[in-house]
């Protein structure tokens, strides 16, 4: 994906979040984002042919620790899209933005495959026979 397409993806993502895309630098393939109150980060986008991963970072000492979740996600196996990475960053920064830390949709998706055990109505207690 060329840089302008990535920038378009970032702009669309920003329309659904508190973040603004405040700068793009095509030669460095860098996009800078900002949201009140002082939450900022940038994304370095890989060249389409080189196979590198995206990179997220913040020059703010207050923001940097919150990026660990997104950085771990990027370094895990598999190709990641810019949108997936931006979503992880947004989730990481929720506490700084004053938003609830728990994403209910993700929790429901996580539990969607878990089967609940039905309690047995005719449950026998150990060592006691029913007659």
From TrEMBL:
Subcellular location: Cytoplasm
Region Disordered, residue ranges: 107-131
GO biological process terms held by the UniProt record: positive regulation of ERK1 and ERK2 cascade; positive regulation of JNK cascade; positive regulation of megakaryocyte differentiation
Listed GO CC annotations: cytoplasm
Keyword Cytoplasm: yes
Segments of skewed composition (Acidic residues): 107-120
Keyword field contains Cytoplasm: yes
Primary localisation category: cytoplasm
UniProtKB keywords: Cytoplasm, Developmental protein
Family to which this protein belongs: Belongs to the MTURN family.
Record protein name field: Maturin
Record organism: Pelodiscus sinensis (Chinese softshell turtle)
Lineage: Eukaryota, Metazoa, Chordata, Craniata, Vertebrata
Gene: MTURN
């Amino acid at each position: 994906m060329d840089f302008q397409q990535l920038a378009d993806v970032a702009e669309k993502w920003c329309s659904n979040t508190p973040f603004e895309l405040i700068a793009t630098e095509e030669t460095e393939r860098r996009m800078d984002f900002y949201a009140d109150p002082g939450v900022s980060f940038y994304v370095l986008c890989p060249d389409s042919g080189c196979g590198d991963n995206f990179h997220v970072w913040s020059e703010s000492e207050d923001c940097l620790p919150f990026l660990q979740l997104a950085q771990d996600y990027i370094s895990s196996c598999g190709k990641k899209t810019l949108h997936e990475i931006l979503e992880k960053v947004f989730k990481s920064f929720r506490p700084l933005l004053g938003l609830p830390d728990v994403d209910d949709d993700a929790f429901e998706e996580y539990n969607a495959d878990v089967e609940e055990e039905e309690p047995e109505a005719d449950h026998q207690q150990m060592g006691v026979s029913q007659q």
